[in-house]
Amino acid sequence: MTPCSPEGPARERGRRGCGDVSAFDIGGTKIASGFVTLPDENSAHADCGRKPRVEAQCEIPTEASRGGDDIRERLTAFASRQLARARDEGAVIRGIGIAAAGVPDSRTGVIVSATDILPGWRGQRIYDAFAKVTDLPVHMVGDVGAHGLGEAGYGAGRGHGIVLSIGVGTGIGGAIVVDGTLFSGAHGVAGHAGHVPSGLGRGFLCSCGTREGHIEPVASGTGLKDLYNARCDAEEGEPVADGSQVAARAAAGEPLAVGVIEDSARALGECIGGMGNLIDPDVIVVSGSVVKAGPLWWNALRAGFEDSALQLVRSAPLVEGELGGAAPLIGAAVAVRRHVAQG
């Protein structure tokens, strides 16, 4: 994805007009943006097609250490530049969709909960901030929820009624999408797949603050690194800087790395099996950087799932996500379009 320049567009775009959304994906390391055009069967514009278009994707660093107020201000400044770009190119922007880290309240626009990955993010009033720079409708959902909406509607989950979406990257998140609608739960935290209990995680510090044993601190990209380094200390090996190095060493046949990948993926698969037993999904979509760890990871994940899932649940396929980094942007666009349609 192209870095966004404060001075102007990162990439030229053509004239538009299919009911575009300016979408943002706020994460711990970067804020991504793009212009999303969703299919519209009733549109007179023949070029809308049947699949979403995501154009002019670019990003700025989150710089989380500068605090939540700074993130909010740079986000709205970023949005102002994107809207100016759209006007210059003749685009018709009908709404702003936001996929936000933490737990956002979609009704009020307030971040009601966030981990220490984004200090000062909790309590930020995002709708109020956007009201100062635009009168367009703004709608915000959680970033993993947006990812799930994107994959359920236009990615690997399309055509399925109940989709369990799991994102395995720096952290682990999830979303439950039922007939195209995101299920958020009573407190907005449904789908927090990384905080499902796992014995493998006991003693490792989770982003939520517990050491009692969650799956995220041993199965995310960061978790692979921490699990490897913890075992590395006992075996006097060479520590790694990130999870990709664990995957690379496993691909090269290093026994320690192979064991870490297998144990981590199997434990995650067992957790997904438990989630499947509770939700009974039609399909389970697994996305994120860690899924690129290769067949060793996938085989262990599926083995753990089959060991944990009830017989009928095992028929739900575990498939890799198709939309990549565009999924949260597409999902945010889906959410704001639905919000606008509902008035």
From TrEMBL:
InterPro entries: ATPase_NBD (IPR043129), ROK (IPR000600), ROK_cs (IPR049874). Pfam families: ROK. Belongs to the ROK (NagC/XylR) family. This is ROK family protein. The lineage of its organism: Bacteria, Bacillati, Actinomycetota, Actinomycetes, Bifidobacteriales.
